[in-house]
């Protein structure tokens, strides 16, 4: 926690995808500032916001943001709010360090909760292509050697795992960690 409060990242799901549910990042930053958050910064158009909050835990901030977002934009977006420590752990625990330099081939899914052993086993049965994955607590790491766009398995992850989440490529993960570090300085 800095003098500005705790640093968080809000990872939005399902906005600005395929020209639908358009949310401009300048408007999203203003939305966060209007809610009283500081050090607000966004990264790319897919809904990544780093911010500081003087009060509230990730779960209560998630509820607050989802309700206010739906009221403001008229549609629901699942939002995963995580603190800077979570981002640090995500990077430190990367089980695929050999592909970290190829950010389009490595993705991290922020999951709403830790999947059960049965859920992971069900997903492992579907992983029959060149991809590999590993789950560490509430993060699923996916190595897709041919990229996410060509991965049949990546499309199966949400339907098979049945744990809500949102994916970010490794470039976005590293950028968010850098932004969180700066916000907390």
Structural class: alpha+beta
The spatial strand order of the largest sheet comes to 2-3-1-4
**Count of β-strands:** 8
Task: Work out the count of structural domains.
Answer: 2
Mean pLDDT: 93
Q: Uncertain runs with pLDDT below 50, 5 residues or more?
A: none
CATH class of the largest domain: Alpha Beta
Overall shape: it is globular
Largest sheet: 4 strands, antiparallel
What CATH architecture of the largest domain would you give?
Answer: 2-Layer Sandwich
Q: How many H/I helical runs?
A: 6
Backbone CA Rg: 16 Å
Helix content: 25-40%
Share in β-strands: 15-25%
CATH overall fold name of the largest domain: Alpha-Beta Plaits
InterPro entries: DUF1697
Pfam families: DUF1697
Protein name: DUF1697 domain-containing protein
Organism: Mesorhizobium abyssinicae
């Amino acid at each position: 926690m800095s003098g500005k409060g705790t640093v968080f990242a809000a990872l939005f799901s399902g906005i600005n995808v395929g020209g639908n549910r358009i949310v401009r990042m300048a408007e999203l930053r203003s939305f966060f500032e209007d809610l009283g958050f500081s050090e607000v910064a966004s990264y790319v158009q897919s809904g990544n916001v780093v911010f500081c909050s003087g009060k509230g835990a990730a779960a209560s901030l998630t509820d607050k943001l989802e309700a206010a977002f739906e009221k403001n934009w008229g549609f629901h977006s699942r939002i995963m709010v995580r603190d800077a420590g979570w981002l640090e752990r995500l990077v430190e625990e990367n089980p695929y360090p050999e592909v970290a330099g190829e950010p389009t081939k490595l993705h991290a899914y922020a999951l709403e909760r830790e999947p059960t052993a049965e859920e992971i086993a069900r997903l492992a049965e579907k992983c029959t292509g060149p991809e590999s994955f590993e789950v560490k607590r509430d993060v699923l790491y996916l190595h897709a050697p041919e990229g996410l766009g060509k991965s049949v398995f990546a499309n199966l992850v949400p339907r098979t795992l049945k744990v809500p989440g949102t994916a970010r490529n490794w470039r976005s993960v590293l950028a968010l960690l850098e932004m969180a570090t700066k916000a907390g300085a």
